[in-house]
Recover the amino acids of this structure.
């Protein structure tokens, strides 16, 4: 792989090739040029490439061809600019950047704009720097957005690290850092929180793009106040009206098709039916699991989806090529096939039934027919990033007991209620028995013990609570060090022994997701990198993840996506009730509340 | 006038207004929002403004209105983003920046992207700095492009100053410098001239826009080589195919409607008939005389013209608002009406018959019904910029004699042939008589003496030659210190006495344009600022210029634009024959040639 170089460093070579004074390194003959600048297809086109960039696009590049020139006959196939994912989190795939790239490059992706928000919650600026180093080594463009909200909810949780405005300012000067990551603290920005404004200002001063995240259906004053604060895009919009009101106000709507997010259909009608100029619209994934990448693809999947919804393929392509490139200020380097741009392109037989044939990245043939042709060694992360689960002792069953002053009787407990297919939870209460001075779960009513184990500072802190909705039966436990956003260790189960075993297993593997059933490890995805990412290939991660899902089903879990529900139980920015290392959090009031709200002598049923 | 401040410096105030916590300074009620982001008109809209920027755009901004809020009732009029001239030279109007702004602001212009190429030929970087200082004081956005080609033709002429690559690099860091000015040396860039590439590289490293100028109908290898060198726009395209081939390759076509350039009609069909996405297209003026500004307007004139050609007004508006703003990377500040952007807008009754009603610039009501409401004092240029005509002694008739070794006989002279309505000249030859050792002009055949007087260094150098095509009769002379691109003093006339008088008059006035007839100054436009610009208002300049044109007609000149033809006689980059301070220039060969090519004893007729 060759390092990508700035246009001006190779300009004289490009000029020589275009002028016919020097031969090109690569010439692609007779393609149909998918021109996202003019939104048209121009047939009978040759592209000459050298130094990783496009030297010229002409009707006949025979004059650019010398003895050493590699010639690829496109035979009338479409020449499509490399696809771009404008907003996404690599960590969501549980893969490293390298393995993510290995998975998506054969699908035609040649640029991703990644917000390493998860790693920042574990390792802070140092983690972002680690991601930047790996990003810079990739054969495709991996741009980073500097995470803006770490912790997501100051005062309600303690992540592994904090990002300061000063650090944001520093990162703005790093190569490959393209802007500020999603400004999730929308009440903070709209409320003139000093740090949030300082971060936005740092990005603006650096001339970089401010990512947005306005996760509310309210389009009233709070929305307008947020807009006035400076964000330039948003991916939390879900309705047509959301997309339209954002596009009109320069908050570029990013329409998501992630593994779990299906937000394109409801919004693309703003273009296909309402007739808005599509230049403001962008398609992205946000969060994609390894299994989706392996089985369904990446931006090619999003393209097929948009086309199936009635979007003109050229318009859909603009939304994942030139639109994001212009949004992030890199349209002189990528996002279209034009002289001087990186030679990042895809040969495809059809735009309607898009499947990436040959993929050329930085002027090199990188993949063909779904197979990566480049040598892409696995990334060797420094050891310190592989030791992020700091639990000072082996956990035992007794650690998961909820003590109560009285030896017997009942208590009213605050219980997190999981809602099927939804990210918010409900704030339930349950009457639970006390036995031997310990509050008892109520498995018959699906009220199970839940614990959050502090894992960043090795404090040994452990918060116990209760959760309803998983439906586990028998002796089992599920644990995860992916626990948005502060990524402590979460464990839920039917028995304290299994919970201890599950947590200890992850302490041993350096993080991951585990299902323990009847005293045995039934499934395990090891995630040694920050407790968030595997070092293995996407197929392997997908396979192990599938086994976790199966094992959870075997344990009685009937939720569509039980693992994701578990990993969101600590997400203290989404209502109603969450758990953090500081205790239970009532997200409606942004306040801590106790697990036990009332103690009685006699027992009754639990209520919602 | 209030200084324009960066968004991030006023963000918390905008947020407070949008949230309803603080009142706006200005609220515009019930307008039709011309949305160039989505290409639609949204009726019933209020805009709240504070700190010079838009705080929010909402259906009802009553909640932003306090006791001190100025309220403007739009009464259903269109709210149009301020118009933008994306490529232009202020000096072409013979007005200072301040007077240009005074003239165009009431027409709805709130941003210009000016290339101070002319002043740079007189005062170099210092001249650009002077323009930058004036630009920064304006109530509208005046961005500068750093001139790239001074001199235009190294070795063929000596301008007052040179611009180096180092200076280009320096200027890239100045506030308000938006990019590199038009890269006119297209053979140089395509031929890998070191300085040209260094200048482009400086702009690219700074993340700024590289202006182009490819003045050839050839779309072959030279075109492609030029593209590979890095320019991002071009305004020299004149045909539909020029526009299309540029747009497809990311060389944004700028379609000119200047005073003399009428290049929109032939090219806008690429959008209106061929259906290309208009996002790449930009409308501009390039060069406009004061008279055009005063009588016909500025970008409003271009808008009406484009609409008359069948262009959708919303598309034409995109081409002079958001398209240039995105092109120059300032779309977060201007080019659309959206939160955070400068409150630069125009109230208008009609988009089809566009006439600017009220103009709001930086949140202040700046003009209404064609009348400037702001206090805009004339700019006081430092004295040194008002003394640029350095001619060490009074010129006399004898200075304009073309000596010949022989006392009598004939010579063959190389003669510049002016072509009606065209910028190129013809290379003619004429048989001219020699009398008393001096080559005689041939007024009967319209072969008149022409001289270029060096005026920058006070060298006293004077180059004599002959020109055909002006048609002057009687005793007269016309002189100008506007003499593209090196701006020496040019004088043409029927008699040496008048030529001396004309030149001396300009030496006295510090530069300008003068017509001398029968020993009297028949018309004079004083241009004391660099010999290029008047300090007077556009109406005054237009009036004086009109008198020059009339006086030239009175002298027998039948050319449509005789003054412009004179001012281009030294433009050594456009074929075929020109004059410079270094002698006659054969532009086809980029070489100097003598005035007298052959000496004979007997006289004959002149030939082309």
């Amino acid at each position: 792989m060759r390092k990508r170089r700035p246009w001006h460093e190779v300009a004289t070579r490009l000029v020589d090739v275009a002028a016919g004074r020097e031969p090109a390194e690569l010439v692609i003959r007779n393609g149909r040029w998918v021109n996202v600048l003019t939104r048209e297809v121009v047939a009978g086109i040759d592209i000459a490439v050298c130094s990783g960039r496009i030297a010229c696009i002409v009707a006949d590049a025979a004059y650019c061809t010398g003895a050493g020139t590699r010639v690829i006959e496109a035979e009338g196939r479409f020449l499509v600019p490399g696809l771009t994912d404008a907003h996404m989190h690599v960590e969501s795939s549980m893969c490293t950047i390298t393995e993510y790239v290995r998975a998506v490059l054969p699908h035609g992706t040649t640029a991703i704009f990644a917000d390493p928000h998860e790693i920042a919650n574990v390792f802070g600026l140092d983690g972002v720097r680690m991601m930047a180093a790996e990003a810079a080594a990739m054969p495709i463009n991996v741009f980073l957005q500097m995470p803006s909200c770490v912790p997501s909810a100051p005062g309600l949780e303690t992540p592994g690290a904090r990002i300061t405005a000063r650090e944001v300012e520093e990162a703005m000067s790093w190569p490959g850092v393209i802007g500020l990551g999603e400004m999730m603290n929308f009440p903070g920005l709209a409320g003139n929180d000093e740090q949030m404004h300082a971060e936005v200002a740092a990005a603006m001063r650096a001339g970089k793009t401010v990512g947005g995240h306005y996760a509310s259906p309210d389009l009233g004053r709070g929305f307008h106040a947020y807009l006035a604060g400076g964000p330039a895009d948003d991916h939390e919009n879900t309705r047509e009206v959301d997309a339209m009101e954002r596009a009109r106000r320069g908050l570029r709507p990013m329409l998501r098709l992630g593994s779990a997010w299906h937000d394109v259909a409801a919004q693309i009608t703003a273009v296909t039916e309402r007739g808005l100029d599509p230049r403001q619209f962008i398609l992205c994934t946000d969060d994609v699991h390894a299994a989706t990448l392996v089985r369904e693809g990446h931006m090619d999947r999003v393209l097929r989806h948009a086309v199936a919804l009635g979007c003109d393929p050229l318009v859909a392509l603009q939304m994942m090529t030139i639109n994001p490139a212009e949004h992030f200020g890199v349209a002189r380097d990528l996002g279209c096939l034009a002289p001087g741009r990186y030679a990042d392109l895809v040969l495809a037989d059809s735009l309607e039934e898009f499947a990436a044939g040959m993929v050329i990245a930085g002027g090199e043939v990188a993949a063909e027919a779904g197979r990566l042709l480049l040598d892409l060694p696995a990334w060797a992360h420094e050891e310190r990033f592989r030791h992020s689960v700091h639990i000072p002792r082996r956990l035992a069953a007794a650690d998961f007991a909820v003590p109560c002053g009285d030896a017997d009787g009942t208590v009213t407990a605050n219980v997190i209620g999981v809602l099927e297919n939804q990210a918010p939870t409900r704030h339930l209460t349950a009457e639970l028995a006390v036995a031997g001075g310990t509050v008892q779960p109520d498995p018959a009513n699906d009220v199970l013990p839940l614990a959050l184990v502090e894992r960043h500072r090795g404090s040994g802190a452990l918060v116990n609570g209760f959760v309803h909705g998983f439906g586990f039966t028998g002796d089992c436990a599920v644990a995860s060090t992916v626990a948005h956003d502060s990524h402590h260790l979460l464990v839920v189960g039917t028995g304290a022994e299994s919970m201890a075993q599950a947590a200890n297993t992850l302490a041993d593997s350096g993080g991951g997701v585990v299902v323990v059933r009847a005293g045995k490890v039934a499934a395990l995805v090891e995630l040694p990198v920050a407790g968030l990412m595997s070092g293995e290939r996407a197929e392997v991660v997908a396979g192990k993840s599938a086994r976790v899902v199966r094992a959870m089903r075997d344990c009685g879990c009937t939720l569509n996506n039980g693992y994701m529900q578990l990993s969101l139980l600590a997400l203290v920015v989404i209502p109603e009730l969450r758990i953090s290392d500081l205790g239970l959090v009532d997200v409606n009031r942004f306040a801590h509340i106790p697990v036990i709200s009332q103690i009685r002598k006699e027992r009754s049923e639990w209520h919602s």
Notes: Chain B touches chain A through 65 residues (CB under 8 Å).
